[in-house]
Amino acid sequence: MTTLSTRGTNLPRMGGFNQAALLEAIRLGAGTCTRADLARKTGLSAQTVTNAVRRLLDAGLVTEEDVKRQPGAGRPGTTLDIVPASRFAVGVHLDPASVVVVLLDLAGQVVASRTAPTPESEEPGAALDVVVREIDAVLEGAGVERERVLGVGLATPGPIDRERGLVLDPPHLTTWHDVPLRDEVARRTGLPTLLDKDVLAVAAAVVWFPGVRPTDAAVVYAGTGVAIAIVSGGEIVRGVSGNAGEAGHVNVGRPFGRCACGRQGCLGGVFSANAIHANAVERGIPLGGGAADAGSTATLRADRAVDDLRVLAESGDAVVVAFLRETGAALGSALTTVCELLDLDTVVPSGPVWERLGPWLEPGLRSVLDAYPVPGHHPLRVLSAAGDGPVAAVGAACLLLDDVLTPRPTGLLLHA
Ligand SMILES: [Zn+2]
């Protein structure tokens, strides 16, 4: 059992501890679990499993299917699987460049998504209007009634106050101070809502899906800024204030770029859209008109610069290819430090920068990671973030699903 969020959010929970434990086991079993398997996996008695599964069947959350066994392999079994369209969760990623809204079903599949530009005014009220409008539109477009929506997971740049649902002072949203985003979205949508930091939501997407599920990983999110979330022992490391993951001033061990703090060699001066834009300009790489447009925000210019670099890299521009390789190698240097310190074996790069420039960043990243293991150490592998949607928004929905569905001792106390 994984626990993505270690502190309660007071969201309404579904069923009791036993039902939640069974639902989690059924989800991860992906249609292969019988009642006997479930009893073995959860440690619950056969009778308890039978009773709780009956309630899940009655609620329409799971379905059963008779499977024929091979001759001589015992009597036919009945396997259980979740009903994906029985419940949904909304995930929202609000960042300085865009508002992304996804609708996930209970199996974690993206059934609908929308993207809108973040209002250039940066004024919180304008962005809130866009968030609420896009949530309404995604539900309406998918034809999903609110009764089947478990809630909204919001992911924003940090720092945040998770307990109080506040976005504090994000560096790239300069007019935002202590914005009560969670409660405003909950009030205006009528849906239970939680707020988390974007890079931690990405980490949730990495560990929530059945499949690879790395237990010890560094999850990189590179967009307007750059952050690294740590997954250790299957748990997302949140830190004292829920703001773990700040990686802007992690040193990359070489003089490269210029960080906002004034120093060279900070990851934030190398591996974000803003940094890549600035470093490309410094190297005299000719970017398109959009990236130089003085009428737009620095965030939008940097975003366009990433697009321009992709076009140049696709055309085989040797200067651009070398620049991106060097940028990827700098990320690798920062990651080897993190992985060595925490004994991690997996790195998961993600985010808008990686999605567009990954093919040209990865050779540099791998060259450093491959050269890293000292004798006796494990190698470092590079994984893609799970799921096929925009990863921070998907992760925000995963956090919501996890919070509502995952069995916890607190659930046991509340529902005993
Ligand atoms: Zn710095």
Walkthrough of the structure:
The chain has 416 residues and is an alpha/beta fold. Mean pLDDT is 85; it is low at 5-10 and 410-416. The protein is globular. It has a five-stranded mixed β-sheet with strand order 6-5-4-7-10, sandwiched between helices. A five-stranded mixed β-sheet has the order 13-12-11-14-15, sandwiched between helices. Strands 1-3-2 form a three-stranded antiparallel β-sheet. It starts with 16 loop residues before the first helix and ends with a helix. It folds into three domains: 17-85, Orthogonal Bundle (Arc Repressor Mutant, subunit A); 86-205 and 391-404, ATPase, nucleotide binding domain (Nucleotidyltransferase, domain 5, 2-Layer Sandwich), CATH 3.30.420; 214-382, ATPase, nucleotide binding domain (Nucleotidyltransferase, domain 5). The protein has 13 helices and 15 strands. Helix 1 crosses helix 3, helix 4 crosses helix 5 (181-189) and helix 10 crosses helix 11. A hairpin with a 3-residue loop joins strand 11 and strand 12 (226-232). The relative contact order is 0.15. The chain has helices spanning 17-29, 35-42, 46-58, 124-142, 181-189, 198-208, 273-282, 289-292, 298-314, 318-342, 352-370, 391-405, 409-415; strands at residues 33-34, 62-67, 77-82, 88-94, 98-105, 110-117, 149-156, 160-161, 166-167, 193-197, 217-222, 226-232, 235-236, 346-350, 381-382. The protein binds zinc ion.
